[in-house]
Amino acid sequence: MAEENEVENEYNPIADLVQHSLDQDYNNASKVFGDIMSVKLNDVMDQEQVKLASQVYNGSSEEDEDDQLELDLGNEEQPDDDTAEDDEEIDDEEIDDEEDEEIDDEEDEEKTS
Known about the structure:
Strand content: under 5%
Radius of gyration: 34 Å
Distance between the termini: 106 Å
Order of helices and strands: HHHHH
Helix content: over 70%
Number of domains: 2
Largest sheet: none
Protein backbone atom coordinates (compact mmCIF):
# COMPACT_ATOMS: atom_id res chain seq x y z
CA MET A 1 0.00 0.00 0.00
CA ALA A 2 2.85 2.37 0.73
CA GLU A 3 4.25 1.72 -2.76
CA GLU A 4 0.95 2.76 -4.35
CA ASN A 5 1.03 6.10 -2.49
CA GLU A 6 4.57 6.78 -3.73
CA VAL A 7 3.52 6.17 -7.33
CA GLU A 8 0.51 8.47 -7.00
CA ASN A 9 2.59 11.27 -5.46
CA GLU A 10 5.28 11.05 -8.11
CA TYR A 11 5.45 14.14 -10.32
CA ASN A 12 5.06 13.47 -14.06
CA PRO A 13 6.24 16.45 -16.12
CA ILE A 14 5.25 14.81 -19.41
CA ALA A 15 1.63 14.67 -18.28
CA ASP A 16 1.86 18.40 -17.51
CA LEU A 17 3.37 19.06 -20.92
CA VAL A 18 0.55 17.22 -22.65
CA GLN A 19 -2.10 18.93 -20.52
CA HIS A 20 -0.66 22.41 -21.18
CA SER A 21 -0.56 21.62 -24.90
CA LEU A 22 -4.17 20.45 -24.90
CA ASP A 23 -5.19 23.58 -23.00
CA GLN A 24 -3.31 25.62 -25.62
CA ASP A 25 -1.18 27.12 -22.86
CA TYR A 26 1.96 27.10 -24.98
CA ASN A 27 4.06 29.31 -22.69
CA ASN A 28 3.79 26.86 -19.81
CA ALA A 29 4.15 23.89 -22.20
CA SER A 30 7.37 25.42 -23.51
CA LYS A 31 8.68 25.92 -19.96
CA VAL A 32 7.85 22.31 -19.00
CA PHE A 33 9.46 21.03 -22.21
CA GLY A 34 12.63 23.02 -21.44
CA ASP A 35 12.71 21.59 -17.93
CA ILE A 36 12.30 18.02 -19.23
CA MET A 37 15.10 18.46 -21.76
CA SER A 38 17.38 20.02 -19.13
CA VAL A 39 16.89 17.06 -16.80
CA LYS A 40 17.56 14.56 -19.60
CA LEU A 41 20.64 16.47 -20.78
CA ASN A 42 22.01 16.68 -17.23
CA ASP A 43 21.52 12.93 -16.80
CA VAL A 44 23.45 12.20 -20.00
CA MET A 45 26.22 14.62 -19.02
CA ASP A 46 26.52 12.99 -15.58
CA GLN A 47 26.80 9.55 -17.18
CA GLU A 48 29.54 10.76 -19.51
CA GLN A 49 31.33 12.42 -16.59
CA VAL A 50 31.33 9.15 -14.64
CA LYS A 51 32.52 7.27 -17.71
CA LEU A 52 35.35 9.72 -18.32
CA ALA A 53 36.41 9.67 -14.66
CA SER A 54 36.46 5.88 -14.77
CA GLN A 55 38.70 5.97 -17.83
CA VAL A 56 41.09 8.47 -16.26
CA TYR A 57 41.37 7.02 -12.77
CA ASN A 58 40.84 3.32 -13.37
CA GLY A 59 42.72 3.09 -16.64
CA SER A 60 39.84 1.44 -18.43
CA SER A 61 39.51 2.17 -22.10
CA GLU A 62 36.42 3.29 -23.97
CA GLU A 63 36.38 0.00 -25.87
CA ASP A 64 35.98 -1.92 -22.60
CA GLU A 65 32.88 0.08 -21.73
CA ASP A 66 31.26 -0.34 -25.14
CA ASP A 67 31.60 -4.11 -25.39
CA GLN A 68 28.27 -5.52 -26.42
CA LEU A 69 27.23 -8.90 -27.59
CA GLU A 70 26.55 -9.16 -31.28
CA LEU A 71 23.40 -11.08 -31.99
CA ASP A 72 23.24 -13.59 -34.81
CA LEU A 73 19.90 -12.90 -36.43
CA GLY A 74 19.92 -16.01 -38.60
CA ASN A 75 21.56 -14.49 -41.67
CA GLU A 76 23.44 -17.73 -42.21
CA GLU A 77 20.24 -19.52 -43.13
CA GLN A 78 19.52 -17.24 -46.08
CA PRO A 79 22.17 -17.31 -48.80
CA ASP A 80 23.38 -13.95 -50.04
CA ASP A 81 22.95 -13.05 -53.69
CA ASP A 82 26.57 -11.84 -53.71
CA THR A 83 27.75 -15.34 -52.85
CA ALA A 84 25.97 -16.82 -55.85
CA GLU A 85 27.53 -14.21 -58.13
CA ASP A 86 30.98 -14.96 -56.72
CA ASP A 87 30.45 -18.65 -57.43
CA GLU A 88 29.53 -17.83 -61.04
CA GLU A 89 32.67 -15.73 -61.40
CA ILE A 90 34.78 -18.59 -60.08
CA ASP A 91 33.13 -20.97 -62.54
CA ASP A 92 33.90 -18.54 -65.38
CA GLU A 93 37.51 -18.33 -64.23
CA GLU A 94 37.79 -22.11 -64.10
CA ILE A 95 36.47 -22.37 -67.64
CA ASP A 96 38.96 -19.74 -68.80
CA ASP A 97 41.76 -21.62 -67.06
CA GLU A 98 40.74 -24.87 -68.75
CA GLU A 99 40.69 -23.17 -72.16
CA ASP A 100 44.13 -21.68 -71.52
CA GLU A 101 45.46 -25.12 -70.59
CA GLU A 102 44.05 -26.59 -73.81
CA ILE A 103 45.65 -23.81 -75.86
CA ASP A 104 48.97 -24.32 -74.06
CA ASP A 105 48.78 -28.07 -74.72
CA GLU A 106 48.12 -27.46 -78.42
CA GLU A 107 51.06 -25.02 -78.63
CA ASP A 108 53.31 -27.54 -76.93
CA GLU A 109 52.25 -30.24 -79.43
CA GLU A 110 52.97 -27.94 -82.38
CA LYS A 111 56.44 -27.11 -81.03
CA THR A 112 57.31 -30.76 -80.57
CA SER A 113 56.05 -31.74 -84.03
